[in-house]
Amino acid sequence: MSEKNIALEIKNLKVSYGAIQALKGIDLTVYEGDVVAILGANGAGKTTTLKKISGIIDGEDGFIKLYGQDITKMEPEKIARLGISMSPEGRAVFKDLTVEENLKAGAFTMKDREKIRKNFERVYRYFPVLEERKNQVSSTLSGGEQQMLAIGRALMSSPKVLLLDEPSLGLAPLIVQDIMKIVKEIKEEGTTVVIVEQNAAQTLKIADYGYVIELGKVSTHGKASVLADDPKLVEAYLGKH
Questions:
Q1: pLDDT (tens digit, 9 = 90+) per residue, 90-101?
Q2: Which one of 52, 70, 215, 232 is most buried, by most CB atoms within 10 A?
Q3: What is the residue extent of each domain of the chain?
């Protein structure tokens, strides 16, 4: 038994888009302070899981609890105020706003100015390039810099649980390594992280635990170090035979 608190608990989660059932009864447990990877092919239900956790879409069955509090049917803004923040797939930065304005937008749930100032410092420590470009319009940033901005914006609300959706998508391998290194640092500073990725090899290096979703169901789960050595998983997701 783990002595850690359960940060996020999901039981029998079902979500449909019209006649298509995207999630067919998912169970996940995320312990406080861990990095948990959700792996799987395109269309497996990974992004749907994150969207449901953050309240963006409705589910039809099951529950989600944040530190024991049922958030299943809560509005996204209330979920954000309780401590869940998401860096969405495709970055979705506000392209007409500057870097600094994007980060300020991430702190919309915060009232404490001193805490906001400290969060700016924290984000700029993780991503020095964002401080260098704080007055630059976000559309002029590279893909990697926009990804850093999306993660930084999600951190501005001091989340208890940070959701990262495909942070490595479309990025050069060296940038991916940098991003993963920073995710590890975020975890080491006490933030719980749930990361959805197709880049299983890199993700399992920094994760504590992993879940593999296939066609809306959890097909396997376990410690990240064990999953990284699973021959079936290696063949399906790590690109080796």
A1: 778 999 999 999
A2: 52
A3: 1-83+160-241, 84-158
Strand blocks (E) in the chain: 6-17, 20-31, 35-39, 61-66, 69-70, 84-87, 161-165, 192-197, 209-214, 217-223
Q: Is 15 exposed, middle or buried (0-12, 13-18, 19+ CB in 10 A)?
A: buried
Please give the distance of CA 67 from its chain centroid, rounded to a whole number.
Answer: 17
CA distances from 153 to 86, 113, 136, 161, 235 (A): 9, 16, 15, 14, 35
**Nearest in space to 182 (alpha carbons), one of 121, 239, 125:** 125
Q: What is the dihedral of CA 177, 183, 39, 42, to 10 degrees?
A: -70
User: pTM for the complete prediction?
Assistant: 0.93
- For domain 1-83+160-241, the question of CATH label 3.30.1380.10 is answered with no
Cα(40)–Cα(200) distance, integer angstroms = 8
